[in-house]
Amino acid sequence: MHVVIMGCGRVGSMLARGLEKRGHTVAIIDQSADAFRRLSPSYTGRTILGMGFDREVLIEAGIEDAEAFAAVSNGDNSNILAARVARETFGISNVVARIYDPGRAEVYQRLGIPTVGTVRWTVDQMMRRLLPEGSEPEWRDPSGTVRLAEVHVHADWIGRLAFDIEKATGARVAFLTRLGEGMLPKADTVIQEGDLVHVVMLEQDAPTIESQLGTKPEEA
């Protein structure tokens, strides 16, 4: 998949490196040409000089072919504006913004835009939200047999019961994060747009389950 990143600071450069290591293509935007010096010598993606919320700059970065967008500059206003442009103008569903102000972060979470903060934790959380497979475990039992992970689900799962995920995969939906708040699914809980789905599954079954949830559900 192609990912566009706004901001080539510590987080942006680390995120670019991590995504390329996983085989994804990256374009990174920054206002300062000097910022690109933070990129690894092995970086093969595009570097674009400009504002990450400028439509023409985003198009140059390949936003029209992107599947994810990360706004990690050092300005809250710029990050949230860029995230909204990526989502509302270009229809990117996997959008994450770094917000320094906790109060603002809570507001934007409730608007359906995932927000994260601090450098290493930011990179880990963004990996979970940006990648359609290979979820990063949030917890493992001491034996390494069972994992809890936030799993990306295909858009066609939206409108389905959370219980349908359990019937299709054999995993358990531990909880959902909806508008920034955790909730335990009930028998009639329906997956909504923007929900983050946290699943408990056997470690050995994780690749199969992630693949199932990353594709359209089979019709009964």
Structure description:
With 220 residues, this protein is α/β, with parallel strands linked by helices. The chain has two domains: 2-122, NAD(P)-binding Rossmann-like Domain (Rossmann fold, 3-Layer(aba) Sandwich); 136-214, Regulator of K+ conductance, C-terminal domain (Alpha-Beta Plaits), CATH 3.30.70.1450. It has seven helices and eleven strands. The strands form two sheets. It has a six-stranded parallel sheet, sandwiched between helices. The protein has a five-stranded antiparallel sheet with strand order 7-8-11-9-10, covered by helices on one side. The longest helix has 14 residues, at 76-89. The mean pLDDT is 87. Keywords: Ion transport, NAD, Potassium, Potassium transport, Transport. One of its GO terms (cellular component) is plasma membrane. InterPro entries: K_uptake_TrkA, NAD(P)-bd_dom_sf, RCK_C, RCK_C_sf, RCK_N, Trk_Ktr_HKT_K-transport.
List keywords for this structure.
220 residues, alpha/beta, Rossmann fold, Alpha-Beta Plaits, five-stranded antiparallel β-sheet, 31% helix, 24% strand, transport, K_uptake_TrkA, NAD(P)-bd_dom_sf
Task: Give a quick rundown of the structure.
This protein has 220 residues and is α/β, with parallel strands linked by helices.
What distance separates the N and C termini? 29 Å
How would a crystallographer describe the biggest sheet? Answer: 6 strands, parallel
Q: What is the helix fraction of residues, given as a range?
A: 25-40%
Q: Please tally the β strands and state the result.
A: 11
CATH class placement of the largest domain: Alpha Beta
Order of helices and strands: EHEEHEHEHEHEEHEEEH
Overall 3D shape: globular
Poorly predicted runs of 5 or more residues:
none
CATH homologous superfamily identity of the largest domain: NAD(P)-binding Rossmann-like Domain
